[in-house]
Design a protein that fits this description.
The complex is a heterodimer of chains A (218) and B (312).
Chain A: H1 5-22, H2 26-41, H3 43-47, H4 54-78, H5 94-114, H6 126-143, H7 147-165, H8 174-203, H9 211-214
Helix pairs in contact in A: 1-2, 1-5, 1-6, 2-4, 2-7, 4-8, 5-6, 6-7, 7-8
Chain B: H1 5-36, H2 46-55, H3 67-86, H4 101-122, H5 126-157, H6 162-166, H7 174-195, H8 223-248, H9 256-280, H10 286-310
The chains are: A mainly alpha (218), B mainly alpha (312).
């Protein structure tokens, strides 16, 4: 059974999701997410052998542009006023979340054993790695208290869904693909505007303002 | 294994080469760090000069130490010399090999570590005790990661002997095992950094005992004892690199000259990579080192899951 670049990129996507879970710095999380989107965006070019067709190039370019460049730029804009750039109190500690991430990866692989999907035989790591990325993104979404981290968790989940959708790549219309990208961009844009409003509200708070009491949500 | 004269001479020759080569790689790492800092740096053979110099000095024992302190350097050196015979070295399989020898290797390393820790506690110096407790904690997690890597390799190659897993002509090939080997390599690299007191786990050049992990445990040794400890840590680094290199590039023994050149070049390459990693990072906060080793374990576990998946 030969290995392919598709396998390596799928494994790297899960590895980078684990890296996002174990990072404390928000800037680091956004940068790792950008790298993950870049790698996943290269997959449409590699999934069919031979020269990539125009449609594949378009999807890859659109994905990389939106998810590896535009969305991180919007997220960096949203946290430009935030001085506390690290996660303070996740619901479970960082070591524990890494171990739980490992168990979830094993669970994702076990789950994809029972799924009877007619996938392409050479890309057999695609389904379990996409499920693992989805589950890890979801775990990030659920166990963190800061809104920006939850946005990054949602985006990692979306990366996992994109991986899974590569199975249907030949039959999915280009319009649907572009529509999904637009939806993601609009969602992140709206989240960034809301976070920006919250930040500005807290910026003008009195000096004795205690963030702990108001709940640390940004 | 027939013990005729030729075999014995070959084993002794292999042992002598391994013993002579080990301190060179510590020198390569120091030289790389110096070059990256735009300095000239010590000579490549500085560890040899240090060891020779230390043998010519006298030894001083504190009154608070007992026989443990005197026996620890000897045990550590003996363990490292025995391990030089048990780890495959390039195109030569290990002279001492049998099914299950990975457990003996790991536990011999553990025995050496135990005696270093015991000697450090024996001196009664609080800083050494602190370093000993850090070393004990990190080595728990590092051994976990190391064993997970061995489990993945053993599962793939269906054998429990290190020479069959990664020695010459071993069936560890990238075309077959691809993604899980990639994860094993990253995980083993983190374990190498942890076990051999390199940044980001421990700074080998620091002068502050408060921040040391390994260096502080050998502070009180002097003269030949310190020479044994320095040599043993150089040999440990060499042995761990010998485990990592055959996983990255497979070595075939029918092509002897090419195999030897490739192996030595890869060893130098790994040493230079360790030097680059050391120069580009700072040491992690001590409560974050545990997280790094947990990540190494999880990477190895993920490699095992991928290896399992590929057989289905």
């Amino acid at each position: 059974m030969e290995i392919t670049w598709v396998d390596i990129i799928c494994v790297l996507a899960v590895f980078l999701s684990l890296a996002i879970i174990s990072t404390r710095r928000i800037v680091g999380m956004i940068q790792i997410f950008s790298l993950q989107s870049l790698l996943i965006g290269l997959l449409p070019l590699l999934i069919n052998s031979g020269m990539p067709s125009a449609r594949e190039i378009l999807v890859a370019a659109g994905t990389i542009l939106v998810k590896a460049a535009l969305v991180p730029a919007v997220l960096f804009w949203a946290i430009r006023h935030v001085s506390m750039r690290s996660e303070i109190k996740p619901l479970i500690g960082f070591g524990t979340s890494v171990i739980i991430g490992a168990i979830l990866i094993a669970g994702a692989f076990r789950m994809s054993l029972s799924l009877k999907i007619p996938w392409v035989a050479q890309y057999d790591l695609l389904v379990p790695c996409s499920l693992a990325t989805m589950i890890l993104g979801f775990m990030l979404l659920v166990t963190r208290t800061r809104a920006i981290t939850q946005v990054v968790g949602y985006l990692v989940m979306e990366n996992g869904i994109f991986l899974f959708a590569l199975l249907l790549f030949d039959v999915m219309p280009l319009l649907v693909e572009m529509g999904i990208l637009l939806d993601i961009f609009v969602a992140v844009f709206i989240m960034a505007i809301i976070v920006n409003h919250i930040n500005e509200e807290f910026e003008h708070a009195p000096a004795t303002f205690n963030r702990e009491k108001m709940g640390e949500s940004i | 294994m027939a013990m005729d004269d030729r075999t014995i001479i070959a084993i002794l020759f292999h042992w002598a080469i391994a013993i002579l080569l080990a301190p060179l790689f510590v020198g390569i790492i120091s030289k790389t760090k110096a070059i990256l800092a735009a300095k000239v740096g010590p000579s490549l053979f500085q560890p040899y000069y240090d060891i020779v110099k230390l043998f010519q000095k006298g030894v001083v024992y504190s009154r608070t130490t007992t026989w443990i302190f005197r026996v620890a350097p000897v045990i550590v050196l003996a363990v490292m010399l025995v391990l030089a015979l048990m780890i495959p070295f390039g195109i030569v399989k290990a002279p001492i090999r049998f099914a299950g020898d990975i457990f003996l290797i790991a536990y011999l390393l553990g025995m050496a570590r135990f005696f270093i820790i015991a000697a450090a506690l024996d001196t009664g110096y609080s800083m050494e005790g602190m370093g000993a407790s850090r070393e004990a904690f990190f080595s728990c997690l590092a051994e976990l990661a190391l064993f997970m890597n061995f489990v993945t390799l053993a599962f793939k190659t269906k054998s429990l002997s290190l020479s069959s897993m990664i020695g010459a002509d071993a069936p560890v090939r990238w075309e077959v095992f691809g993604p899980s080997l990639f994860l094993v390599v990253i995980s083993l690299f983190i374990v190498i950094l942890a076990e051999n007191c390199r940044i980001p786990v421990d700074d080998p050049d620091t002068h502050l005992e408060l921040t040391m992990v390994h260096e502080v445990m050998i502070l009180d040794h002097s003269g030949p004892d310190l020479a044994y400890m320095l040599y043993a840590s150089a040999m440990k680094l060499f042995l761990f690199m010998n485990i990592l290199v055959p996983i990255i590039t497979p070595i075939y023994s029918h092509d002897a000259v090419v195999g030897v050149i490739v192996f030595l070049a890869m060893l130098v390459g790994i040493a230079v990579t360790i030097g680059i990693v050391e120069s580009s990072m700072a040491r992690l906060r001590l409560n974050r080192v545990g997280n790094l080793l947990l990540i190494a374990f999880v990477l190895a576990f993920f490699g095992f899951v991928v290896a399992l998946w590929k057989t289905i």
